[in-house]
Amino acid sequence: MSVSQDDVVATLARVKGPDGVPLTAGGTLSEIVVSDGKVFFSITVDAGAVKAWEPVRAAAEAAVRAIPGVTSALVALTAERSASAGGAGGPAVRRVSGAAGGAPAAAGGAGGHAAPQPAVPGVETIIAVASGKGGVGKSTTAVNLALGLAATGLRVGLLDADIYGPSVPRLLGLKGRPQMGPGNKLIPMKGFGLEVMSIGFLVEEETPMIWRGPMVMSALTQMLREVDWGRLDVLVVDMPPGTGDAQLTMAQQVPLKGAVIVSTPQDLALIDARRGIAMFRRVDVPVLGIVENMSYFLCPKCGERSDLFGHGGARDEAARLGVPFLGEVPLHMDIRATSDAGRPLVATAPDGPHAVIYRDIAVKVRDQLAAAGRAAPQIVMEG
Ligand SMILES: Nc1ncnc2c1ncn2[C@@H]1O[C@H](COP(=O)(O)OP(=O)(O)OP(=O)(O)O)[C@@H](O)[C@H]1O
């Protein structure tokens, strides 16, 4: 039985806000996304009223889940602070409530220092894999880096926060939906020993979605905090590409211990990578290093190496910017073919030449984390 947006709206008309006004009449609802029996939307409320709204959120989620044909429903509360408070063009910092009663993400007045983000229970360390622009191989790197970390004996999770193009389900060959476990927490999917969560499990990869700011944060908060991660040593977050407001907000909202930047060697990509590094520095997240992807090409026939895009650019850039250089990954058909087939190299050919490169990168990342070995950094609020 297929569910329509109208079915959801009709159901929500029977759910009332704390003021007794039906949800559909209060102007608080985001766009309602319905895809293949999965329903996703957020309720935007005043930051001071989050507590009063939590039972409404829960009731809305339960009501939608009870609609015949609905297989999963995700409803999040978001609260937004206006950007007007003293900012010099800085982005608004959104405070998002943990949808099922988690602590508000950040406190603090305009221009002041925010409290560090609350840790994610059971998760020791969270790192981001980011790129200044799309298509540089960020997700491929994130997957193989996560597997490389797991190969060192760590318990590793992978959160695909690339809401604009979630590709982790495809890269790991994962299909299906995460189940709801005790305490209304989603149970991550399992892929090659990793605990995996992706917005791609909740909406179809092909579904074009218009993401508004609060929805971005709702989705991220739910995927980070409404998931039963178990006990993890490292959670690798595959960030959306770019350095816009959504990425900056994410970098602020996730208690990151560090970030890995992926770039190709071209000048233009490096300019974007530099922006990525600047973004993380701005929010006091240490940059663990740069990976140069599609660094060189080894001819499969003659073995000759060609530096297609002027290889070495990222290494030089890393030295210039004073961040570690983590390694170079060649442009190779095997990397593409295994990624696209959902059989990542580090898991399926762990001793092959490319897997060795990724595993080396993972060891360097682990060592960087150990060297950093300090508590979550203070996060500066931009007003
Ligand atoms: N080193 C490599 N050699 C060959 N192909 C690669 C390599 N790295 C990535 N690719 C391929 O390039 C394409 C883009 O990679 P990927 O999806 O990882 O990039 P991305 O930066 O995450 O992109 P986006 O952010 O736009 O989703 C994929 O088809 C992937 O298989």
Structural write-up:
It contains 12 helices and 15 strands. The strands form 3 sheets. Strands 6, 7, 8, 9, 10, 11, 12, 13 and 14 form a 9-stranded mixed β-sheet that branches. It has helices spanning 5-12, 50-65, 138-151, 168-171, 199-202, 213-225, 245-253, 267-282, 313-321, 333-340, 345-348, 353-372, and strands spanning 33-35, 38-45, 72-80, 94-96, 113-114, 123-130, 156-160, 189-191, 194-198, 232-238, 258-263, 287-298, 305-306, 325-331, 379-380. 33% of the residues lie in helices and 21% in strands. With 383 residues, the chain is α/β, with parallel strands linked by helices. Helix 3 (138-151) crosses helix 12 and helix 6 (213-225) packs parallel to helix 7. The protein folds into 2 domains: 5-112, GMP Synthetase, Chain A, domain 3; 123-376, 3-Layer(aba) Sandwich (Rossmann fold), CATH 3.40.50. Bound molecules: adenosine-5'-triphosphate (ATP). Adenosine-5'-triphosphate is lined by residues 131, 134-140, 162, 165, 167, 241, 293-294, 329, 331-332, 335-336, 339-340. Residues 6-75 form the MIP18 family-like domain. Homodimer. InterPro entries: FSCA_dom_sf, MIP18-like, Mrp-like_CS, Mrp/NBP35_ATP-bd, NUBPL-like, P-loop_NTPase, YlxH/NBP35. Binds and transfers iron-sulfur (Fe-S) clusters to target apoproteins. Can hydrolyze ATP. In the N-terminal section; belongs to the MIP18 family. Belongs to the Mrp/NBP35 ATP-binding proteins family.
